[in-house]
Records
---
Amino acid sequence: MSAISASEKVDGFTRKSMRKAQKQRKSQGSSQYRTQSAPVELSPLPQLKDAPSTEQQELFTQKLQQCCMLFDFLDSVTDLKSKEIKRATLNELVDYVSTNRGVLVETAYPEITDMICTNIFRTLPPSENPDFDPEEDEPTLEASWPHIQLVYEFLLRFLENPDFQPSIAKRYIDQKFVLQLLELFDSEDPRERDFLKTILHRIYGKFLGLRAFIRKQINNIFLRFIYETEHFNGVAELLEILGSIINGFALPLKAEHKQFLMKVLIPLHTAKALSLFHAQLAYCVVQFLEKDPTLTEPVIRGLLKFWPKTCSQKEVMFLGEIEEILDVIEPTQFKKIQEPLFKQISKCVANPHFQVAERALYFWNNEYILSLIEENIDKILPIMFGSLYRISKEHWNPTIVALVYNVLKTLMEMNCTLFDELTSSYKADRQREKKKEQERDELWKQLEELRLSNPTLVQNNCHGLTGIKRMVRHFGKWAYCLSRSQVDEKIDATLVSLWEIRSYR
Amino acid sequence: TNLQQRRREGPAAALLWQKPRSAAQQRHSVTAILSKMAGADGDDSLYPIAVLIDELRNEDVQLRLNSIKKLSTIALALGVERTRTELLPFLTDTIYDEDEVLLALAEQLGNFTMLVGGPEYVHCLLPPLESLATVEETVVRDKAVESLRKISQEHSPVDLEVHFEPLVKRLASGDWFTSRTSACGLFSVCYPRVSSTVKAEIRQHFRTLCSDDTPMVRRAAASKLGEFAKVLELDYVKSDIISLFTALASDEQDSVRLLAVEACVSIATLLPQEDLETLVMPTLRQAAEDKSWRVRYMVADKFSELQKAVGPEITKNDLVPAFQNLLKDCEAEVRAAAANKVKEFCENLPEDSREQIIMTHILPCVKELVSDTNQHVKSALASVIMGLSTILGKDNTIEHLLPLFLAQLKDECPEVRLNIISNLDCVNEVIGIRQLSQSLLPAIVELAEDAKWRVRLAIIEYMPLLAGQLGVEFFDEKLNTLCMAWLIDHVYAIREAATCNLMKLVEKFGAEWAQNTIVPKVLGMANDPNYLHRMTTLFCINALSEACGQDITTKQMLPVVLKMSNDQVANVRFNVAKSLQKIGPVLDSNALQTEVKPVLEKLATDTDMDVKYFAQEAISVLALA
């Protein structure tokens, strides 16, 4: 506390991390809305291993049913005995399905899935902390984890059991099941998301009929995340699963998969919380490009479209991803995209934030990229030269200046003649740019005058000869106009003369 | 003439800039176009348009954005005909751009009717807006839909059927979800103005979108369901809308179900009372008991609207128990939303049974909420609970509500206490504030010393109101010390508010009271070792002089101010000059000439430039030069 008040004295505000540190790690119950009446006390059943084999199946079912009882874990004093019985029973069930053969008879499937659904499928509670920052805040943990963990464990062992038969299970593990499973990926508890990831992966592997559905629903979750809520805790986990799914795509890629890349994965880069799943996202993108190099151009164009404008941290991530892409790019593809790409890189090396500039300049340490640049130096040097030359003189950070000198040297060695030409024309180019800028301003000033002199025109000009006349009067010499088309010509003529004035200057 | 000839060639040459160019071409765009055209036919009338369009495709996004924001100027320069034949096709083709540029474009086009030649040509604006309505970014799409809705009103009924309605149909059957989402917002604007065959088609399209494969489209349809129902004929509301409503309200995704609750309000308003029970209530009951808290939250949030829409009988039979359940919900979010509605719900109950319902059904729940575990629930309740006293009358308030107010005044959360105190006036009207005064005092004292300055500020703002209701004696005895203590708070905003508070108190209690109770204390601070406190004296004098009148100002305040002109801190000295300027009009001319003038003249020669400045300003404002 004393540390906090000391910092408070300085600026009157506590730092967020400190404020958060005071809070206890919180746990939260699920939003169970009157799903059952008050729990009935459980009584222990005999151990499965002690039961004669003829009664084992019956006992197994009884135990599954017993585990359908839900308890309130926010209340840590009630039902202690029953909670313990359920925990022990779940442990025994996990053990039973993972070590024994022949326990998954057809009649057990509905009982098993029923127990699983009752325990794990629930509406996630409202977030305790509405502006939850996953990077800084401690996640709220699931209160009923002691039971739920074992149920997930059980589900996993059930799916991995050598006797497991998807053809029977698909009656219970269906689209609705998958949909509810996917919604749970929004859980704030990372332990839960980790289990879900493995489980969904197993389901995707075993149920061929559900694959397209799973991909479509993940699509929908991502689109909702990008364009509607900007909130979903499990993006990284879902991308991780997708990474291995993409790996298995057959060639040539289906249109559906390409659409997923361009309309879902690329726009995912716009998310505020990109840092939480960027590694997984970049992996997916690169996987696609390794499968089909012709996608390189649209992907890079997409990244350039969504290039961060104000967030330097994200810009560094984008540069990282570009380098990963360049590592696998084919030279023919590189040629197609080099100009827009290096225009962006040229802006990045000139970025006043030294981490952005540094990350971009590191490209010149990459042997493969260097060879690509050398091959296309005629195109790339003119794009890069201006920025590099300017920041070699202007950047505030000495490390950046040193790096820029090295890069300039490398580029010079690649094409000395062009480098000299660019150096000597640098000043003239800047002046030409400046002049162009002035001309633009001039043009807009004239247009603005045209608009200001006719405030009524915007409302009147459809049947507004009066408005047009007033506008024309502004130009003095055409006081007597007769038809609208003539007026149009007059205005054109004005602009022509404006243009001529500009070009003679 | 030569000019006319060139004009005729215009559209053909316009093709030159219709296709988006590659980056390489863009680099020398102006010159490229110029040389191409000059070489081709020497047509120089097109240069200006080329220049304008070049501005719209400048490589720099910011410049492009600036140009697009002035699109109306460009259209104006081109005239209506060329805007239609050249500018709009160009815009339709450049739809692949930064979202920010597209947003500006979507907005501009909504106001373009006159620039294309008025309502008879307004349909020319449809192609670019149609493309914009299909882009990914929600903000752009929504703006495009907004503009489309706007210009739909400017279409003649014939144009609406020939141009607008086909566009809606194309969007509604688009491949990608974005266009279908946009279509949802356009049905209701064209439905009332088309023929009955087209109407039938529109209803069919809407129906299809309500059961769309993607939840995004279903959400869009659900959110427009109420709006669409309003423009439909009653028979179709019953036959079409109700089944869609029921289906959306039991969608597998809670984000869709909760939007159906919103539609429920509009639909219930449209239906005759006798149909509500069979057509709407089963769904509403189900929503109030939904397993997702988001849906229940929505019901709680819309409760007053729902109550008005279904009328008194259904309210008595159905909504009262539903409301009780929401007040007892397991999620704090839902309870807080319901708690917010307590007053409104009670007010709108049918008069004949209002008191009985509140006393037997609502009040027990409210009592429980007072000691809720969640502070948001308690503070939501505290912001409305006082309103119940006017509904229940004096006796019930004293017997049933007063204990709750008192409990909330002692709540651990400052926001709860503040909400109670800020609504004291409702209680004052019914039972008088004195009933509360014993509990009020500790609550006020604690808030007055709260560690958060915003809490202190909030309570200061209620001081004049409290003083008026509690009376001068109570105030002198209990609250005066607090008000004086705020004057030396370490936060400026609090000292400032405290000064203002003193002024309001003097206006309430009169000059004599001021002279006896506060003026001596304020003037005493002039000798404080802390210069901030000395300045507070000056700020108080500024605020109080007018309310206290000439006598007190001249005899008691002025000497202190003049004495402070010798203060060693320059800030105090220039505030003396400012104070003299402020209280000058209250003083008589004799005092001004003999006492104020020499002091200001002396300050005008001060070594500090700020002191000089303010002294000179005071001299000129008071006309003492």
---
Amino acid sequence: MALSCVRLCPRHMGPALHVCGYATLSRASRPQEKSSGGPVFQYVGEHRQPTHKVFVWGFSFTGALGIPSFVVPDSGRKKPRKYQFTPYRLETAEQISSAACGYGFTLMASSTKDVTKLWGMGLNKDSQLGFQRTQHSRHKSYDYVLEPSPVALPLIQPQQTRVVQVSCGRAHSLVLTDQEGVFSMGNNAYGQCGRTIVEEEVYSGSHVIHRIEGFSSRVVQVACGQDHSLFLTDTGKVFSCGWGADGQTGLGHHSISSCPVEVGGDLGGVEVQQISTYGDCSLAVSRDGQLFGWGNSEYRQLTLATESTQVRRSDVQGCRNELNIGGDTYWKPYRFVNGLTCFIGLKCLIPLMSLHGIMTYGNIQYLDLQKIKKQHLLRLFLCMKICN
Amino acid sequence: MRSPAVRMFRSLEGLFCVYKPAGVHWKLVRDTIETNLLKGVNATSAQPLPHEVRFLSNPNNKPEAAGGLALRAAAVPVLSKHPLVTGPEFQHIKVGVGHLLDASSSGVFVLAVGNGNRTLNDLYRTRTTREYTLECEFGTATHDFTQMGRVVERSTYDHITLDKMERVISMLEGANQKALRMYSSVDMSSQEAYELAVKGLLGPDGKSVPILTGLRCIHFQPPNFTLEVQCLNETQKYLRKVVHEMGLELRSTAVCKGVRRTRDGPFTLQDALTRHHWTAADVMQAIQQYRSKKRSKKGSRTLTDKAVLQTSEETLSLSGKRS
């Protein structure tokens, strides 16, 4: 029996296998020591951040994506691309540091000292992208800008000033510079641009870019709602102007304000660290981590404060845009939760409590990514994951 | 009347799996198992030798006895049936192998004995997936993607974080899902494709390129990381190549220290026999377990008109689907 077993193995083994018996295979080389010779290549540094690339997606027919071939195809066989569902790389002349989406238009800014610092594309029927001179006539302006086109700001020292931040609303935009304050352009029917309202002003083809005055100190952040604007100064005060029918200006009344007025209410004496607004709802985070909100709460964005005994205006005769679906409007800022930074969607609030704690309020059924600031996109994806 | 050896052999027919250690060629594993099975089968108690009646002449008789030879009847053992003459009852057992593992990989290795080879064929004609655990390391690239190969390049890996790794993994998963759809022989825009996809049966039939149906990182601590892979039609060298390519995607280099198969179709690590249990008795026990599992699965299915092949296909593909 033992004989048969020995005979069995060689019969089935091929010639190549005679070398390796039951022991482990002979190793070609020893496991590498770390100190062995040879260069070590470094392709990426340890603290490398992703480069400042711009990706665009969404509805393209207004030209807001900045790619003309989506609207006017290059070759006759291609069809216009109405929706770009996935992020599409947009080539920019400079490295973009700040970008903002409005209602059908986009503004991009670069923190460079060159003369051209601001580019706009999309809808320009209210001159929200400034005056875009047409090819054939220098008195006419384009209504739709299909490619990122430079926006000329009336700066005193164009080669010293940098653009810090841009923000866009429904039909107006705000540009914050480091030395020369805030510039606004676009529709001013409700005073959202911070200048006196002119009756029956024609905004299309307008050259007006207004430098907003009336702040107590330097402005460090701007935020645009649908038809109102918020400004945050370095002393922590919040100023607002524009349409206030839902109390989104937080000035204590439901009327229009055409020049920036300081926001009071619970925010009086509080040092605000960051403001955020979208649609008709506004939020502010103070330096000690408290969150304040005011404005439209139709979708119960601010309902956490309803349990408190704060006085709120319940008669809504002066309001125009409110649908009265069981929500309330808050016309003064109310403090309700602790938070660090906050983001506002069209119908919901997403205060980012800490890296792991995120709470949302309101109706999240429609969250339009197109309208959300690109620089907060990664954080917002985190929010979206947890919401869904 | 079957001999005890034959009876033991019949009880040994079926499928079982062993744990193949790293560094051993699969053929040696198969040969060892065959040797041990032969030892076990041939060691069954030998039957007593049959006796036959032979008429033997009495040597003590005087030769001058009248009328011929005086014979006496005697029952003598039949020497032609003696084990030393015939040799062992079983000289060769058909032990078939399932999906192969190369010499430096380890893990679940399915074998089949006797009639189980037919089942093995059927098993592998249906679509089964295999699950591997890959131990990998950043920092080196070798010519054969293993740690023992000749170093081609070394690079830094400080910049690699878990989210970059996850991004690369999701990119690879996406490409593999696309390949899965592409190599299935159904029209993607048909109802049939939808129904197959709902049941998880969408995929290539038979030979195709290696496809990873599932990939995730279960342990990440630079420079070491561990991946869990579920795949179809793969080879271990391909998996090491995937690790190497993942290192390249992360702008660094990676090498695979060990490939370990944790599941092959319905056979998992729990069922695998380790080296000290490669004896006939343990193999018999493993085969009994496999048979009882198959019986209970058959019993739980109420579809009697469907062929066994189809039910085993669904069972296997359901177990092969990534949970």
